[in-house]
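Provenance

Sequences were taken from public entries as deposited. Structures were produced by running a predictor on each sequence independently, with no templates supplied. The record for Fatty acid hydroxylase domain-containing protein from Selaginella moellendorffii is shown for reference.
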Amino acid sequence: FTVDLSKPLVSQVGHLGDAYEKWVHQPIVCKESPRFFENQILESLTRTVWWVIPLVWLPFICWLLLVSSQRGLKSQSIVSCLISGVIIWSLLEYSMHRFLFHVKTSGYWSNTFHYLLHGCHHKHPMDGYRLVFPPAATLGFLSIFWPIIASLAPREMAPTILGGGILGYVIYDVTHYFLHHGVAFDQWSRRLKRYHLNHHFKNQTVGFGITSNFWDRIFGTLP
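Predicted structure for Fatty acid hydroxylase domain-containing protein:
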């Protein structure tokens, strides 16, 4: 099976079968956005400009901090819980990228799901409209993680820990966009940019950290 890049891709990639893994990691370097769906509504739901992420989620984070405060959580504890949430996210960022986003697939539906989740980014790494997660997709992840946090953390801490996790996610998505489309301005940003682009264009089996290489160092997946 050969994918026709001039036609909507989502309905095609599943037919690649075992060849999908090789195909999706042969990047097409252009800033044009490929078409995913014939249906215009579905197509629009897959495209998100980067600034929508902080615009949507930063006010929500502030509301979560307010809820914790109203439940009696002190300022010092709010800061601690917020930082804890960011740290939890950083581990989640690494784990999802390594074990979920880079899972090997070969069936029609598994290929299609993987392409929508992360494969499209590796095939078209410079597509500026599919570098960040659409808010609707993020809500799906929140519906999974919020009950876990609420059941494990004290009632007054849970909203702020969730807020910290979302803050970590916002930092991740904005950083990810910068790594592909921003201009490095110091040694740190140049090193981080090179680190991530090596993951795309040299070796996709290592270098799973986006905002840092900390967990790659811990788990032995440095390039």
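Residues 9-219 form one domain.
The chain has one domain: 9-219.
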